[in-house]
Design a protein that fits this description.
Blueprint: H1 3-10, E1 39-40, H2 42-49, E2 69-70, E3 76-86, E4 95-104, E5 110-115, E6 118-124, E7 129-135, H3 155-158, H4 176-179, E8 180-181, E9 184-185, E10 210-213, E11 249-254, E12 261-267, H5 273-278, E13 282-288, E14 303-311, E15 313-314, E16 368-371, E17 374-375, E18 378-381, E19 385-392, E20 399-403, E21 412-418, E22 421-428, E23 433-435, E24 446-448, E25 451-453, E26 458-464, E27 473-478, E28 501-507, E29 548-558, E30 563-568, H6 579-582, E31 599-606, E32 612-616, E33 621-628, H7 639-646, E34 709-712, E35 716-723, E36 751-755, H8 758-761, E37 766-769
Parallel strand pairs: 2-6, 3-7, 6-13, 14-19, 18-28, 29-31
Antiparallel strand pairs: 1-15, 3-4, 4-5, 7-11, 8-9, 10-12, 12-13, 14-16, 16-17, 19-26, 20-25, 20-27, 21-22, 21-26, 23-24, 27-28, 29-30, 31-35, 32-34, 32-36, 33-35, 36-37
Length: about 775
């Protein structure tokens, strides 16, 4: 966060004393200065290359850069993680990134060359895919200190893994057990600790694991955070594989039995998801089933997937990831990362509490918008309908987008699906606006917002360019503040002047007739209706029985300089240091134990100043409604905020730092988890109903179907209905204890749910859960 973000963000935060508290030393702590870097401002990049580079397209069309991988015709695949050079910034050296390469396991033929983002895998429902993942990611090569030119082993030297947080720790010498002693963090600002591994960037065998986001899979192949493995054979405690692969390999089998939709896979290693994904490890994964997809959707050259990400770069064209290092700035050579000047090379500021976490930043926001690996690209489109499958693959940035800047032609825009599933009918969002509230824009400002997407979410968007003339141009624009809703304003605030523009479409002559379905004429409908848990109007559907209600909070805790960690239900990742969890549950500290076949209502109470995209593994859910609770969201005080803090007990032997009536960081919920509150809800939190303001609002029409990632807005309760059975199973068949998966979801290491702001999930905003029989 830079000074502007700090001012806007921390003014809204409820400052608490944190239990991980070391002494502060004067001056900054330096980070990964192994490879000298000079920041390349994004505004300068935009001025020279914006809308000049073609969008990389995957698919069978005449406009495709690379063909998709047909997983149905090649059911035995090898996906190798490797470091590559890729042209990204014209006029600069090639950028070194980490990428997935896909080959046929039997023939070795390359089906999807290594690329950032990786070439899409296209599976067919009922045809399983067997994937051998191979980790060939190189450790840092010291020869790169003298670059350019650079060699394999550069990326780890540029994108710092913080070893003080709860992370994969393949060498077993860092993480919370080693970096916290007697309740005090190793103070990395003290010169005496400069050689401590907790205070050093990680340089060693790279942990990685691929998670197929949105999949209904056995937990052993879920790619969970503790299932990582390194090229040299180290493994996480939950590592799983079929067969007996060599060190650095794991084989997964995906059954592909779920309803058709847009999934994606990305790295999910514990505590380094943000760095591994930032390095390039992400790709689309489609599951096709023509009989269950809307008929005649735009296809071939007219179906295009796009992953939108934000990045920073240095003057060598390499990825730049602020970590507190002293970075040279050509406009201000004396500038330091996070010094708050106009020429500050780090938009995000330095780590807010370097004495506790020397390299972790609460959120990353870049100044260059990347689509399919290209900065501010262009795409030539015909005057006809296109289907764009949009994915927010950024670390933290949300995108609130419209097709057409002021004064440009405005094509018609429809959403036909979100996340893993299609909607019953297209939703016309053409010219949709949002009246802002709680943003830094003046209240009441009306902004275009046809597609609103958060990290991890996917939108299937039909854009109808018909009627437009060859030569006309349409800009895809963005107006979402970062962080959302109270952060820097795209196009207005320094460092964000061009992130209000994403890419540009240029109309070319029509090559033939358009026979695709027309949403304006009632086409593009789902053949079979969605199994409805919620009616889309804010109410429970008939025939749905809720087994359990859980009220769970989202909470950020502050140190002297800003956030120290962000928590789900005020509980650390493993729950073992949280008394109200550890007292209630077995030694694994797992609190969410839904029964297979059951339907639960999760009421997510957001006690932070930011919106969080919450993601559940294995299951999709439906958003029931959202409702505001009493309290001042600007200061995070009053109403439920105070009631929640006041519910905490006095100090215990387990956690002597707690004070009665004061929120205790990482203690867990203030009350025993399994004792229902006066709302009848589990979770250990005070009942929310006395503080609700009665303004229940249904989900937006386009988010009223099945989802795996949903936005939880600050100061609101977001109610999710999750059912632990495949989405295709009718309501009358789904019963607690009935298993309609083709695998046992209660077996294996279990699943997780978490915030999909990657910087948050990497520092404790993630919890395991297990399905029971």
């Amino acid at each position: 966060m830079n000074t502007q973000i700090l001012t806007k963000h921390f003014a809204q935060s409820f400052l608490l004393a944190v239990f991980l508290c070391g002494s502060l030393a004067a001056g900054p702590v330096w980070g990964s200065d192994r490879v000298p870097q000079i920041w390349l401002p994004g505004d300068g990049i935009f001025g020279t290359i914006a809308f000049t580079q073609p969008l990389p397209v995957f698919g069978p069309g005449y406009n495709a850069t690379l063909p998709r991988v047909n997983a149905a015709a090649n059911p035995f695949l090898t996906v190798t993680m490797k470091e590559i050079e890729q042209p990204v910034l014209p006029g600069y050296p090639k950028t070194r990134v980490w990428a997935y390469e896909t080959t046929n396991s039997f023939t070795g033929r390359v089906l999807g060359p290594a690329f950032w983002p990786a070439v899409t895998l296209e599976a067919r429902r009922f045809v399983q895919t067997r994937v051998k993942f191979v980790n060939h990611l190189p450790s840092f090569n010291p020869a790169n200190i003298q670059g350019p030119p650079f060699q394999d082993g550069l990326v780890q030297g540029l994108i710092t893994a913080d070893q003080s947080i709860h992370w994969a720790d393949p060498l077993g010498n860092t993480g919370p057990m080693q970096c916290v002693a007697g309740g005090m963090a190793v103070d990395c600002t003290l010169p005496a600790n400069s050689g401590n591994p907790c205070c050093q960037p990680f340089a060693g065998p790279v942990p990685a694991v691929a998670h197929l986001h949105g999949a209904e899979n056995f937990s052993g192949v879920d790619g969970g955070p503790e299932q990582w493995f390194t090229p040299t054979g180290q493994k996480g405690k939950d590592f799983f594989t079929y067969g007996a692969p060599a060190p650095g390999e794991a084989t997964y089998i995906y059954p592909n039995l779920q309803e058709p939709g847009t999934l994606w896979f990305h790295d999910h290693a514990l505590g380094i998801t943000r760095t591994n994904v930032y390095s390039g490890l992400a790709a689309f994964y489609f599951i096709r089933e023509p009989l269950l997809e809307p008929r005649n959707l735009p296809a071939g050259a007219y179906e295009i997937e796009m992953v939108i990400q934000d990045r920073q770069f240095d003057t060598n064209g390499q990825l730049f990831f602020p970590d507190g290092s002293p970075n040279g700035n050509p406009a201000n050579p004396a500038a330091l990362c996070g010094d708050g000047t106009v020429n500050d090379p780090c938009l995000n500021g330095p780590p807010p509490n370097p004495n506790i976490h020397p390299f972790w930043n609460p959120e990353f926001f870049g100044d260059v918008v990347i689509v399919n690996g290209a900065p501010w690209p262009k795409l030539q489109v015909e005057p006809r309908r296109y289907l764009f499958r949009l994915l927010d693959g950024s670390n933290a940035r949300m995108y609130r987008m419209s097709f057409g800047a002021p004064g440009e032609p405005a094509p018609r825009v429809y959403i036909v699906g979100q996340d893993d599933n299609y909607l019953d009918a297209p939703v016309n969002v053409t010219g949709k606006t949002i009246v802002t509230s709680g943003e830094t824009w003046p209240d009441g400002t009306v902004l275009p917002a046809e597609v609103f997407i958060a990290p991890g979410e996917r939108n299937y968007v039909i854009v109808d360019f018909s009627g437009l003339r060859a030569g006309q141009k349409i800009t895809l624009i963005n107006n979402a503040p970062g962080p959302y809703p109270g952060g820097l304003i795209p196009g207005v605030d320094a460092g964000q002047l061009n992130v209000n523009k994403i890419m540009q479409f240029e109309i070319i002559p029509l090559r033939g007739s358009d026979a695709s379905c027309n949403p304006a004429a009632g086409g593009c409908r789902r053949p079979l209706p969605i199994v409805r848990l919620a009616d889309g109007q804010g109410h429970l559907s008939s025939g749905v029985t809720i087994s359990k209600v859980r009220q769970l909070v989202l909470k950020e805790h502050e140190g002297p300089g800003g956030p120290v960690e962000v928590l789900v239900n005020n509980t650390h990742w493993n729950g073992l240091s949280s008394p109200t969890i550890a007292a209630d549950f077995p030694a694994d500290g797992v609190s969410e134990l839904p029964r297979v076949g059951s339907t639960e209502l999760w009421e997510i109470i957001n006690l932070t100043a930011d919106a969080h995209p919450m993601h559940t593994h294995l299951v999709q859910f439906q958003i029931l409604n959202r409702e505001t609770f009493a309290g001042d969201v600007a200061t995070l005080t009053g109403g439920y905020y105070d009631a929640w803090g006041a519910a905490f007990p006095a100090a215990t032997a387990f956690n002597p730092a707690c004070t009665g009536g004061v929120a205790c960081p990482a203690y867990g919920p203030p009350r025993p988890y399994n004792v229902p509150n006066t709302d009848g809800a589990l979770g250990g939190n005070p009942a929310i109903s006395p503080y609700l303001l009665g303004d229940r609002t249904p989900p937006a029409p386009e988010e009223a179907g099945w989802k795996d990632t949903g936005k939880a807005f600050p100061g609101k309760v977001t109610r999710l209905l999750a059912r632990w059975t495949p989405t295709s199973i009718p309501k009358f068949l789904a019963r607690p204890g009935s298993n309609f998966y083709t695998f046992n979801p209660a077996s294996g290491p279990g699943y997780v749910w978490h915030c999909h702001i990657l910087d948050h999930e990497d520092n404790e905003m993630m919890r395991p859960y297990k399905v029971t029989r």
